[in-house]
Design brief:
Number of domains of chain B: 1
Distance between the termini of chain B: 27 Å
Strand order of the largest sheet of chain B: 1-5-6-4-3-2
Strand content of chain A: under 5%
Structural class of chain B: mainly beta
Helix content of chain A: 55-70%
Low-confidence stretches of chain B: none
CATH superfamily of chain B: Nucleic acid-binding proteins
Shape of chain A: globular
Distance between the termini of chain A: 32 Å
Order of helices and strands of chain A: HHHHHHHHHHHHHHHEEEHHHHHHHHHHH
Number of helices of chain B: 1
CATH architecture of chain B: Beta Barrel
Shape of chain B: globular
Radius of gyration of chain A: 23 Å
CATH topology of chain B: OB fold (Dihydrolipoamide Acetyltransferase, E2P)
Strand content of chain B: 35-45%
Low-confidence stretches of chain A: 1-30, 518-522
Oligomer: heterodimer
Largest sheet of chain A: 3 strands, mixed
Largest sheet of chain B: 6 strands, mixed
Number of helices of chain A: 26
Number of strands of chain B: 6
Structural class of chain A: mainly alpha
Number of strands of chain A: 3
CATH class of chain B: Mainly Beta
Number of domains of chain A: 1
């Protein structure tokens, strides 16, 4: 094909892009101090490699999906690396600070804090109950329940941006209702996970979406718009597959559609508008903080206006004794003093991931200053990614592999992001395309394998003394995570589409094709 | 670009060897320098997919920077072209 351009250069040429030097990560040849390691440049990979091994052992082998545990692994790995440094250890310590103060980490952190507040406000505003109303109103039966769960969980995950949160909400409320009306439990759990993949991949407020965009110099709204084609190309056959499988795979015969209706609330569906505000303003090019803030304001107004939640569900100051301010709607008397509400818990919920992110980018910076990053990059570029097709396949399979091993998918995404950026740039592959390759596999693999974080959080709801199995007194409410692997259709289709896209060039864009809006705005 | 266009952008099967025409102004990432047998610094190269654009007049440290290039000539058979450096507009994402 012939690609021609007008004489005018792309919009990006007017300003200074948010480049790697601002992030600090890319400057391996530049102004920062080099760190000499005992054992050469490969020794600089020890902190990150130790962390990855820890993450595989903790989450993959032991099945513990605890982000705080990964923080400890990262801390130990970072400390171990210091003992391998030749000469003054101050340079190593300085590099940790240098890594932690990069813009890439700060950008993701800011977006997560806002996204967390928005997501939790939708949760307390009865969005899930609204979706359950929709399922009931549409008269969803046993055979169509998995397909409906996929669509509705996908909607919730797209709204709240966290596939983990959507999985917990749907396994808690939607899953037992589906099993009671006779849907196959394995298929239903897999459909919920598929919905989580869809939202994690597409939502502008998703942590993985944010990381994929900011690490590839692309604006979040543009990334969401550009990945829509891949998401839909996987979602349509996945929906059909759930309809077919739902009619073939039988469930247990329990009668309980009443349980579904009990929690239904039509008003919760107003949050489709809150969600729409965020998506449309982000895609229209507004900054993600502004987009989420507008969505948050709309959600709070809806919650209060329609009585979906109280003011104290959103912000709550709990005091131990009555006083002058206890008459206020946001001040309550309780046994322990504290602050709560959706804004609080939504933001605080991201704290472990924020700390982990700071440590991962610090370890990556150690690799860069020690020469390990460059060594791996040179190996990939000289031996593996020798053509654009092979480069894209390397990006797809590399992202899939690291996400298959590390179950906290955002952590895996941050670790592989610099390689995706550099390999892609060596072939002038556009930032939108790189972000899409990075996030599709991150989102998909985070919800397929039994040790994946998304699967584990759903499984946790089913097992234990307070789990669904105990509550309903039947094993039908507990699904073995291994059994769901083949049925997470949207996840598998998304990976498959990107393998095909790399081979065929579907959706491929080069850097000269168009510039990121954030770049042109800078 | 309109919101609608953003959704449709890239909705095609794109080849490995994009071609351009003289007169085009491209923003590209400089990916390499041409091997000149050690005579000098070498000419900057932008690899776009599996196509190659030689960039004359680029700074010596242009690799891994984004530059705007005016395309002077392009061979659609070889998927190679020559252009002139205009300005540097950015750097690598990492």
């Amino acid at each position: 094909m012939t690609d021609t351009r007008e004489a005018a250069p792309p919009a990006a040429d007017g300003g200074e892009p948010p480049d790697g030097s601002e992030f600090g990560v890319g400057d391996e040849s530049g102004d920062g101090p080099r760190i000499e390691f005992r054992g050469g440049k490969w020794a600089s990979t020890v902190p990150l490699v130790f962390f990855i091994v820890w993450a595989i052992f903790q989450s993959g082998v032991l099945g513990i999906g605890d982000t705080n545990g990964l923080v400890v692994g990262a801390l130990i790995g970072t400390t171990l690396g210091m003992f391998l440094v030749r000469g003054d250890w101050k340079a190593y310590a300085d590099t940790i600070f240098e890594g932690m103060t990069q813009r890439v980490a700060a950008t993701a952190i800011v977006a997560w804090l806002w996204a967390g507040m928005f997501a939790e406000t939708l949760q307390v505003g009865g969005f899930v109950e609204g979706l359950i109303f929709a399922a009931d109103a549409l008269n969803v039966g046993a055979a169509t329940f998995p397909a409906a769960a996929f669509v509705l969980c996908g909607l919730l995950a797209t709204g709240i941006g966290t596939g983990y949160g959507a999985t917990v909400a749907f396994v808690t409320l939607f899953f037992p209702a589906g099993v009671l009306v006779g849907a196959n439990p394995v298929l239903l759990f897999a459909a919920i996970l598929s919905g989580a993949v869809f939202g994690d991949n597409l939502a502008p407020v998703s942590d993985t979406t944010i990381v994929s965009a900011v690490t590839q110099d692309a604006d979040i709204g543009g990334v969401v718009a550009s990945r829509f084609k891949y998401a839909i190309a996987a979602a349509i056959p996945a929906f059909a597959a759930y309809l077919i499988a739902g009619s073939v795979m039988s469930g247990v015969s329990l009668e309980g559609s009443a349980a579904l209706r009990e929690s239904a609330n039509a008003l919760g569906l107003v949050h489709l508008l809150s969600m729409g505000v965020v998506i449309l303003t982000a895609v229209a090019g507004r900054h993600i903080v502004e987009a989420i803030s507008w969505g948050l304001i709309v959600a709070v107004v809806f919650n209060l206006l329609f009585g979906l939640s109280s003011a104290s569900d959103i912000v709550a100051f709990t005091v131990t004794e009555s006083g002058a301010f206890t008459g206020l709607p946001v001040v309550t008397v309780g046994e322990a003093a504290g602050v709560g509400g959706s804004l609080y818990s939504g933001a605080v919920g991201f704290f472990p991931l924020i700390v982990l992110t700071l440590l991962i980018v610090a370890m990556a910076q150690v690799m860069i200053r020690g020469g390990g990053f460059e060594a791996i990059q040179e190996f990939l570029l000289n031996r593996v990614a020798t053509t654009v097709r092979r480069a894209e396949l390397t990006m797809v399979l590399g992202t899939a592999t690291i996400n298959g091993m590390i179950t906290i998918n955002t952590a895996a995404e941050i670790a592989i992001a610099p390689y995706i950026a550099r390999i892609g740039e060596k072939f002038n592959i556009n930032g939108y395309r790189r972000a899409n390759i990075l996030d599709a596999n991150t989102s998909a693999l985070g919800y397929i394998f039994p040790w994946a974080g998304g699967v584990l959080v759903g499984y946790q709801v089913m097992v234990g003394p307070d789990g669904l199995g105990a509550e309903y007194g039947t094993d039908a409410m507990v699904v073995n995570p291994i059994e769901v692997v083949p049925y997470v259709f949207h996840g598998w289709f998304l990976v498959g589409i990107f393998v095909l896209a790399a081979i065929t060039g579907f959706g491929r864009e080069y850097i000269p094709d168009r510039a990121s809006e954030e770049v042109s705005r800078a | 670009m309109s919101v609608f266009d953003k959704f449709l952008a890239g909705f095609s099967f794109r080849g490995s060897t994009p071609d351009y025409a003289p007169g085009d102004a491209l923003e590209v990432m400089v990916t390499d320098v041409e091997d000149d047998g050690g005579v000098g610094d070498g000419t900057a190269i932008a690899r776009i997919g599996d196509s190659t654009l030689r960039i004359e007049g680029a700074p010596a440290d242009a690799v891994n920077t984004r530059v705007v290039v005016d395309v002077d000539s392009w061979d659609e058979t070889e998927h190679r072209g020559v252009g002139t450096y205009r300005e540097t507009v950015g750097e690598s994402a990492f």
